[in-house]
Amino acid sequence: MEERLIRVGITQGDMNGVGYEVILKTFTEEMMTDICTPVIYGSLKALQYYRDTLTDITEPVIPNVIARAEEAEEGRVNLINCVAADCPIAPGESTAEGGMASFASLEAAVADLKRGVIDTLVTAPINKHNIQHDGFHFPGHTEYLEACFGENGV
């Protein structure tokens, strides 16, 4: 069996919140891709927006855009673009589109975790109000994950 770094799925959270700032600042540290293979589930457009807008990021993160987690490259920040390209970015605002985008990210990452193509999951903060819709009736994403994996799986 081939040895590989742990593959970490990372959800974008609410794209109008702090998620991308935290993600981008984390992966400006080169050592992070030495210890894991990150797979961000989110929006290429949002990642590029925050990368270009945040003034305190000294090393820009250039993602390796992939269609499936199995394509993730070690030593790179990988991104699965699972959010509609026309989803508006409105930093600091609570929008229905932002909620749907955070759910799309979470749903895609959970599906890959269930399939075993990522090893663990890190979730960026969601907006517990704008994520609510027909497919999501939970107080937060922890309860959603419990419903997906059982109480002991979280």
TrEMBL record:
- Is the keyword Iron assigned to this protein? no
| Gene3D superfamilies referenced in this protein's UniProt entry, alphabetically | Isopropylmalate Dehydrogenase
**Is the keyword Metal-binding in the record?**
yes
Which SUPFAM superfamilies does UniProt cross-reference here? Isocitrate/Isopropylmalate dehydrogenase-like
State one molecular function term (GO). Answer: metal ion binding
Q: Which InterPro entries match?
A: PdxA_fam
Assigned keywords, A-Z: Metal-binding, NAD, Oxidoreductase
- Domain of life assignment: Bacteria
What's this protein's name? 4-hydroxythreonine-4-phosphate dehydrogenase
Q: Give the taxonomic lineage as stored in the record.
A: Bacteria, Pseudomonadati, Bacteroidota, Bacteroidia, Bacteroidales
